[in-house]
Amino acid sequence: SDRGSCMTTPDHKFDYEEEGRDRLLVSILRQPSILALVRFWTIEAQKIEDLTHGLLMSLVLSSSSGRLLDLWGRLVGEERGGLLDGDYRSFIEARILSNTSSGTMGEMIAILALITGAIDVQALAVYPAGVVFSFTSSLLSPPTTLERVREHMEQVAPAGVLIHWISEVPETPFGFLDD
After folding, report:
1. On the chain, which terminus has fewer CB atoms closer than 10 Å, C or N?
2. What is the pLDDT of residues 5-25, one digit of tens each?
3. Residues 101, 104, 107, CA angle at the centre, nearest 5°?
4. Helix H or strand E segment including 134
5. Which residues contact residue 116 at a Cβ distance below 8 angstroms, ignoring those fewer than 6 apart?
6. 162-168 and 130-136 strand pairing
């Protein structure tokens, strides 16, 4: 007399739409014509990505050269003055730091090291308002002269601070004692 106790409750499916879509996608995606179409689209998308990335990278200072580097220089206020791209890039990077600098000793050391390529820049504060920089650089070559470096550093230094130099810029970075 208790017929309902033998029966189980039927499952109610709530995902017919999702299941149907999944089955359709699997069967459609396995079709050779669909695979060819997807391949064509992704190859074209990769070409566009590669071109866009190349364009964006050419605008990055570290990979800029020639006229684009000149545009960077104009943007930050640094004249080329006959410099080759590598030296000019260093001066542009230094100008960017200079434009945002507060003239602290650490900032001046970083900027001087960037411009000169010196690994070890020493700075000594001189009372009442001066600083003596000491560095050795074999990277400075005309027209990257000490005078240009001095002018740049004088613009970075706080007002009234006198800059003194103790520097060595060997004409031949490598040689023998008898040379």
Report:
1. N
2. 555 666 776 677 777 777 777
3. 60
4. strand 130-136
5. 135, 137, 139, 140, 149, 167
6. parallel
